[in-house]
Amino acid sequence: MSSQSQQYQISEIQQDRRKLFLDWADGHRSTFHYIWLRDNCYCSACGDPRHGEKRFRIVDVPIDIEPLSVHWDSGNTVEIRWKPDGHKSIYHARWLRQHCYSATERKHRQYRPILWDSQIVTNLPQITYEEVKTGDAGRLQLLEYLRDYGICFVRNVPPKNGELESFAQSFGPLLETNYGRIFEIVVDPEESQNSVANSQIDLIPHTDDAYQYAPPGIIFFHCLMANNDGSGQSIFVDGFQIAEVLRQENREAFDLLCRYEVSFRKYYRDRIDMHFSSPVFCLDSSGHLQQVRISNLFPAPLDLSEEIIEPFYAAYGKLMQLYTDPRYYLKQGLQPGDLVMFDNHRILHGRTAIAIQNQRRHLRYCSVERDYFHSQWRLLQTNLSFQG
Questions:
Q1: Which tens digits make up the pLDDT trace of 49-100?
Q2: Within its chain, how far is the Cα of 192 from the centroid?
Q3: Which of 107, 147, 250, 259 sits in a 20 to 30 Å window from 180, CA-based?
C-alpha cells in the first residue's frame, strides 16, 4: 500500500462521550468532536456539498450532541446517526484526513512563504509568456511562484497596448481604481501632480494604496519602453523577510508595529480624500504574517497615546532602516516585453530616479484581487493532481 493510500485509510475507530478517534494506516490519530462533525454534515438536508452552501444551524442541536451509532466500511467512509432524531451523516475518509485539526496536521497545512533578499537575483522566479499561455502546467508554475515568493517575472510579453489587459484578465476581473482599470506610468510633469509614479524622483519601497481599506492585491507591471541609461530601475523588497528580520533582531519593535496603527492619507482638494489606519504587520492567530502595509509616500500624522509616540517612532525607524537597505533589494531594469506580477500585501516596490534627459520609461499597470489568484491556484492544483 502506498504512503498516500495509507494516509487516507482508516484502520480503527474509537469513541468516548464527546469525541471520535480515528486511527489511520500511516500511524496518525485524528480526534473529531461530535459537535464539529455534526456541524460539517453536508447531506442534502444540511447543505450542498458542491458549493459549500450550508442550511444547518448549529443552534438547532445541543453542544454536547452524541451519536446513536457509528459505522465505517473498508476504511473509506464513516456513517454516524445522531441523537435524538436519527439524522444520518456520511464522511469520506479523504475529506476527514484533509480537515483533521490535530496540531501536526494543522502545521503540515500551514502556508510557508519562501523569504528572500538581494540574493534572489541569482535565481529569479520567472517564466515565459508562451509557457503560461499554452498550458495549465505553466500557469500553475507562475501561480506557485507568486504564492511562494510573492513575485514572478513573465518574459517575452509582446510590448504593445492590449496585451496587459488580456493577460491580467485571464487571472480575474481588473480592479477599478481612482486611476481607472489601466494606469499609464510615464514621465509626465503634469501627471506627476496626480501621481508620484509619473514623476522623475526616486521612490522608496512601499505598499501601493496603503491609504485604502483594501489595497490592490496582485499588481501587474508591463514594460513597453525603457530608459537606455540605467535609470528608472524597479526595486522590490520582500516585506515578509523584513518583518521576520525585525522580529528576530528587535522583538519589542516588531510587537509595537503589530499592535499599533499607522495612518495613511491621500488627499487632493475637491477630488479625493482617502484615509485608513492599520498596523504595519498583520498576523493570524498563530503569529504568522498575513499582510505588510508600509508607505512613507502617503503618511498621515500618528494618532497614538502620548507614552507610545517615542517608542513607536524608534520602532518605525528600525523598520525603515531595513526596508531601505540594499541588502534586501531586488533591483531590475525592466525591458520592453517584461511583465512582473507581485503580491501587494507582501512585496514592497519602488524605483530609482529617472534621468531628466532620457524620459523613455513607460509601464502599464493594473491589478486583480488576491481572491481570484488563490481560487485559480487551487483549481489548477486540484485538476493537475487528478490528471497525474
A1: 667 788 889 998 999 999 999 999 877 899 999 999 999 999 999 999 999 9
A2: 30
A3: 147
Q: Which of 186, 281, 262, 274 is nearest to 224 (CA)?
A: 186
Question: Could you tell me the three cell numbers for 255?
Answer: 510587537
**Are 251 and 304 a contacting pair, CB within 8 Å?**
no
Contacts of 169 (CB under 8 A, 6+ apart): none
Q: Could you tell me how many residues make up the chain?
A: 388
Mean pLDDT of the chain: 90
Q: Which three-class secondary structure state does DSSP give residue 247?
A: helix
d(CA 174, CA 366): 7
How far apart (Å, rounded) are the C-alpha atoms in residues 55 and 58?
Answer: 10
Residues ≥6 apart with Cβ < 8 Å to 122: none
What are 267's three cell numbers? 488627499
53 class by beta-carbon count within 10 Å (0-12 exposed, 13-18 middle, 19+ buried): exposed
- 214, 264 contact by CB (below 8 A): no
Task: Look at 120-129, 190-199, 350-359 and tell me which has the smallest mean pLDDT.
Answer: 190-199
pLDDT at 359: 62
Which has more confidence, 159 or 5? Answer: 159
If DSSP codes are grouped into helix, strand and coil, which group holds residue 269? coil
Beta carbons within 8 Å of 271's beta carbon, 6+ residues apart: none
Per-residue pLDDT band for 388 (boundaries 50, 70, 90) equals: very low
Phi, then psi, of 386 in degrees rounded to 5: -70, -40
Task: Return the minimum-mean-pLDDT range out of 6-10, 260-264, 306-310, 383-387.
Answer: 383-387
The burial of 325, by beta-carbon neighbours within 10 Å (0-12 exposed, 13-18 middle, 19 or more buried), is given as: middle
Q: In this predicted model, what pLDDT tens digit does every residue of 276-285 receive, in sequence order? A: 999 999 999 8
Placement of cell 486611476 in the chain = 179
d(CA 347, CA 294): 10
Exposure string over 163-198, b if 16+ CB within 10 A, otherwise e: bbbebbeebbebbebeeeebbbbbbbeeeeeeeebb
> Could you give the CA distance from residue 333 to residue 304 in angstroms, rounded to a whole number?
40
In a 3-state reduction of DSSP, which class is residue 8? Answer: coil
Give the pLDDT score at 53: 85
Handedness of CA 180, 184, 190, 192 (dihedral sign): positive
